[in-house]
Amino acid sequence: MIKVRGLNKEFIQGQERTHVLKGVDLTVEEGEFVAVMGPSGSGKSTLLQLLGGLDIPTEGDIVINQNKLSIMSEKERTIFRRKYIGFIFQNYQLLPTLTVEENIAFPLHADGSLTKEKNQTILKLLDSVGLKDFGQKRVNLLSGGQQQRVAIARALVNSPSVLLADEPTGNLDRNRAEEILGLISRFNREKNQTIIMVTHDIFAAGFADRIILFKDGVIDQEASRKDEDYAKYLANFMA
Amino acid sequence: MKTMLNIWRISWRNITQNKKRCFISILGIILGISFVTSMLIADKTTNDVFDYYEQMYVADADYWVLSDEHTYSEDDVSSVLASSAVMETLFALDKQAFFELEGNHSPQQRSVRITGVNDQTSSLLKLPVVEGSLDNEGLVIPDTVANLLNKKVGDTIRFTNLGEAEVSAIVEYTQLLASPSDWEGAESTSFRVIAPLDLLREWTEMDNEVSYLRFQTNKAGENLFPSLQKEFRDSHVYIQPVVADDRQSNDIGGMYTFFYLIAGLSMLISGFIVFNLIYTSVMERKKEFAIMKSLGYLQRSVSRLILMEVMLLAFIGTAIGVPLGVWLGDMFMQTFLGVFEFDVVYTLNWKVPVLMAVIIGIIFPIIFSLFPIYTAGKTSVLLALKMTNQSDSSKKQYQFRVVLGIGLFLFLFIDHPVSYVAILASVVLLFPFLLLGLKQICKPIWRICFGYSGSLAAQNLTQQLNRNANTAAILAVGIAVILLLSAVIETAPEGYEKDIRSTYGGDLRVTSETPWSDQDQARLLSYQSVENVELLTEAAPITWENMDGEERQFSVFAVNKEGPKLFDHAEREILYDKLTKEGSILLGERAFTEWGGNVGELISINTPSGEQQLEVIDVVNTSNYSGYTAFMDEDYFHYGFGWGNSFTMLLTLHDGYQAESLRNQLWQDFSSHLAKVEMIEDEIASTTSALSGMNELVLVMLVFIIGLASVGTANTLLMNTLERTAEIGTMRALGFTKQQVRKMIIGEGLLIGLSGVLGGVAAGALLLYFSSKSEFLEGFISFQLPLGNNIVALVAGVSLSLLAAWISSATASKISNISSLKEG
């Protein structure tokens, strides 16, 4: 479970202060798939960075699985990220000198927890993302969709309880995007992983259980699949 | 004008926005240019110092009349004195004597050459007085003698069997009064003092006798010289122009060739650092250039933009490096001139060197940046905006490197100086493959030492293989060249000793101030330790003209097939026969180089018999005067060249006898006319002593070059890091700690440094092996790896690379982990 309370984030550049997040309160249940939307500069990516412990808030608390991120040191946050957080980036961000398998194994290597058993997990993950025969290939030889599938496998390799995805389909065409989103939803269902996905694409957001709309650093609107008027909300949004 | 300003602004902004990497590049330029400046200044200043002492020795004299006997009568030069072209004259008489001293000093330690002159204040004799005055009544002694004998102006000095005189003046060092500064030096070199001519004649009863006459002429002197040559043709006196040429007693030019080689190497490394920066900057900004071009910028404007950046870097580096170089040059001069036995006065000659250094400092980085400047201008708008992958051309590039590298490596089998350059170039070209091999070997070790970061470090080397390999290769070339030089310096004493023993002609050279007689020769041969006695006939000073028409001066030896071996050549026996042809001469290597002609051409020499055009029939290797000498057939020497007497005797000892004990005996038995007794060991020691100091200097240079190359390593690592900002950010986002990132960068730096050091040591060993087998070096260098310097190279290379990596790793660890979300 993720609890965000009174989250504020200010960036200071020279004399200029930019208040990006202005007292955000948010609760995400375990196994929930949340899509965060909003115009550029609304604070959605900043929220993702703070949730992943990549940055620290100016004010407010983030509690993930009863771990309070704001009181952790940089190193503690890094170790926390290794254990509990998986990242998927818009540009895949695969390490070009490594093979597909090595890229997937990276978080385990960083942790020093790569075992024979985990090697089997990597092979299973490869299979499940449809890249069974690509393990020894260099990542730069893969297509965009294949690279994003590698990135998903990498994000899942240490079975994180939270998956943070930043525009995971931003660079893909509709067919590839659907394929990737289907994959993410499947893992969400099968492994009960909490997913927070930042996206501009309402089509992508449609895969989520809940959609949160950010505007000027605050949550402007939100709608859940459980809501009665969710379909209407989606239709309005698309319109 | 407006466009120009705009270009300046963009260039300046780019530099200030990339402070760290620009700082490292400027540091590279500063170090390179400061070293070049210091060497240029040191070279010019050293030349000035030697010129100053040579000019002081020459003074205002135009000609001198000497004799192939010890002395001649003043009457023999009456025509000189009577000539209206002669403005001023100076008579000098040399007499070998002994100081009468308290304490236990051997005869050779007390040996002194007294030069009697008729006017101590003459403009033909420059004596830099530090105490007392030149009164033509007392002795003039150099400060080294005054200090050693503890004499002041007004004190009396006594000479055995001659008399005594008061010291009237103490002077600074001049060549005429060059004396040892300690008793150890006095074992092999005489002291020198000046006395009034009349007083010396009174003591020696050599009335009317002179050793030489110096004179100054007016414009008509040019005609006087040939007429006097003609007049003296069949006499024992001869005339020579007074020439300032000290090459027989020093080889400063050779030493500076060595330093310039290192300076060139440092500029090469600096150039590479600048190339690295500019090339990376151009690659990073291709999109920017494409946009500029799409908005109407010409190829020329884009190239000019990069040129401005290079010029800005060069200006800043030069502005700091040149003054630093002036200071370094001064430090170098103080250290270098400190090895002389006397206090050398010097004025730093910095104006022309600074001008040259500024030009080099500006031009050199531009030359090294020409390729990136051109590449920037040629940026294709469409390809750059699409960011097309250029892996195909890289593959071709590697194939080209392999083929060319192997091709150049084959020069190893060609015995020619150009092979050194070819082998070093092949090392640079083949370095990526060495780096890949080393990566495979080191990967498991790095894994143990640095954990997973170590594995990644090894893996990452392939990402910018060319750049990493070039960085390591530059370090390798620097180390290889310096190790070769240090091996040369270490093995050179052996080579010199071999050369000296081969061409010294015996075990001792015994020089008398009067020509040796047959009785003397028989007496010398009667010593139990002496196996053989031979005359060594040497004419000095003999002036000649090089191919540029400049006057030079050296000694000429008489040789014959049965006489002592004074030079080496593969066809030595044949050369003796060739020399018998009238008007033939052999030149030593340095004399030949200075002359500038070719074998078979004529050299113009002022012989005692007048000016002669002699045919240079070959170049020979000799240790005599380090090769700044010539050889002629003994018979021709007497009847054609015009030199009759021999002042030096070459003694060869029976096995098991010590030359030192014989030396003492000789000083006792021939004290009346003995001028110098030199053992072959003295010659070896004096030739090789300068090299021992050189080795320390080489060590300093080694560390300097490695330091400079490490600046290059830091630069490369920084470029690599900055290019991989998104990648490192991703690693951090995926759970890599700052320490793990630092370890990874340190691992990369260490691998580059280690491969540079290992490659350098291997290349150095290869070059050394090549040199030891080379026929053109005639076995002068033996294959002997300088262990100490290799260890210094290894330790300095690895530790400085570690330092460079440490600095870059600090930057890498500060990369925000948000970069992964923002970039890519």
Describe the structure.
The complex is a heterodimer of chains A (239) and B (824). Chain A has 239 residues and is an alpha/beta fold. Chain A has one domain: Rossmann fold. Helix content of chain A is 37%, strand content 27%. A 6-stranded mixed β-sheet of chain A has the order 6-7-8-3-9-10, with helices on both faces. A 4-stranded antiparallel β-sheet of chain A has the order 2-1-4-5, with helices on one face. In chain A, strand 7 (162-166), helix 6 (174-191) and strand 8 (194-198) form a beta-alpha-beta unit. In chain A, helix 3 packs parallel to helix 5 and helix 5 packs parallel to helix 6 (174-191). Chain A is globular, with a radius of gyration of 18 Å. The model of chain A has no long low-confidence stretch (mean pLDDT 87). Chain B has 824 residues and is an alpha+beta fold. Chain B is 57% helix and 16% strand. Chain B has 27 helices and 22 strands. In chain B, strands 9-4-3-11-1-12 form a 6-stranded mixed β-sheet. Chain B has a 6-stranded mixed β-barrel with strand order 15-16-20-17-19-18, surrounded by 4 helices. In chain B, strands 5, 6, 7 and 8 form a 4-stranded mixed β-sheet that branches. In chain B, a hairpin with a 2-residue loop joins strand 18 and strand 19. In chain B, helix 15 (418-450) packs antiparallel against helix 25, helix 17 packs antiparallel against helix 23 (680-723) and helix 17 (465-503) runs antiparallel to helix 26 (787-813). The mean pLDDT of chain B is 87.
Which strands sit side by side, in order, in the main sheet of chain B?
9-4-3-11-1-12
Amount of helix of chain A: 25-40%
Radius of gyration over C-alpha positions of chain A, nearest whole angstrom: 18 Å
Portion in beta strands of chain A? 25-35%
- Tell me the number of helical segments of chain B per DSSP (H or I, 4 or more residues long): 27
Overall tally of structural domains of chain A: 1
